[in-house]
Amino acid sequence: MSYRRKHVKTKIHRIKPRKSILKKPFFWIGFLLLSTVLAACYLLFFYPKFQVNDVVISGNQKVQTDALKSLILNNINKKISKSIFLVDAAKLSEEVLDRFPVIGNIKINKKLPQTLNIEIKERAPIAVFCPSFTETVEENQGKCFLIDESGVVFEPLYAAPQNMVIVRQLMDKNKVLSGQKVVEQNIMKAVSMIEKNLKDNFKIDIKEAFITSPLQLNVRTNENWQAYFNLDQNSDINLQITKMDLLLKGEIAPEARKNLHYIDLRFKDRAYYK
Question: Model's pTM, two decimal places?
Answer without folding.
Answer: 0.81
